[in-house]
């Protein structure tokens, strides 16, 4: 089964022609200012403003902060922008009626079957950048179901301010400046996964005016129904492999390192509703084909213990933490026994638990993600630059473990597994005794 995980989409964007001006209203900071001064009509013609004075908006906005070490920090060397909270403004733009959320759902949150999860867009901030910027950063997850961000650029004249989004050595740039726009005025937008690094380049003139939304995955109310056909090429490859009687005829285990980072420290984390891109395809595809699936946190102990030698046997390898039981097909959460912290200093103190199988019996489909992405996943989000300070959730390097049932010629294929592993674990007095070595 061959595929390129770098070919899977991590960002999408588009434009929406303006048929009626976008109305923007906000609260006054100065009570002496007339209420009529706190309104803009944006149509994209000329400087973009049909009615109102954008300088009034700028005067009523506050400096934008960013998250660092669990706190909201203001530092113009890192981020130079202005902002308004949702409670202080309103906009006539709707990401649902404009079709934006539908496009995001199809591209960034596709599902298998009619019961696929839906996307909820929650207004987060109004930002203005007159000669501003935002250095490269990764967003802070707002909840276990927060999977991405949507940035909507209103058609106000400006130059510069390109949005650049990166993931797994791939990069996408969005130029929404007036010089790059089409003849017909339009609203520009981009959506991307929350673990993608992104930055806003300096605005050289005018005002870059954007609405930012947090994107949440909403689990379906009904059980996932089996699709009539599995047309994705990767799913077809999975089915061909599983239908081969020579492939793991007695059953076994496959491992897949997730290509995205996930905030999993909350007991309310719903895996199937939060997975992104190819990770979601792997999870749902193997589950549809009768395999058991579960997710485990993975620690890179090489940083903690150092390299003890040049041989493969002596070199420290990643370690699997406590296990996560199989979630049911409807996406409900069964049990989370994962570690509360995946920081390397905690390796000595964590009560690691090992399944009845060793990693030498797991056939790995892919390799771990690149070093830079791995570091971002393992660190607390509170220690990363982000859109807002938080210490409630952590990123970790995760792997999907697939339990492959035995091949049975009598039944014309493989029996469906109810669970990935047998429920037997082994506790050790010395947590280091549970270290297992992953093959490179």
TrEMBL record:
List the Gene Ontology MF annotations in alphabetical order.
metal ion binding; oxidoreductase activity
Q: Keywords in UniProt for this one?
A: Iron, Metal-binding, Oxidoreductase
What does UniProt give as the signal peptide span? none
- Alphabetical list of Pfam families matching this protein: 2OG-FeII_Oxy_3
Domain (Fe2OG dioxygenase) ranges: 115-217
Q: Which domain of life is it from?
A: Eukaryota
Q: Report if keyword Magnesium is assigned.
A: no
Q: According to its UniProt record, which protein family does this protein belong to?
A: Belongs to the iron/ascorbate-dependent oxidoreductase family.
Q: Kindly provide the name given to this protein in its UniProt entry.
A: Fe2OG dioxygenase domain-containing protein
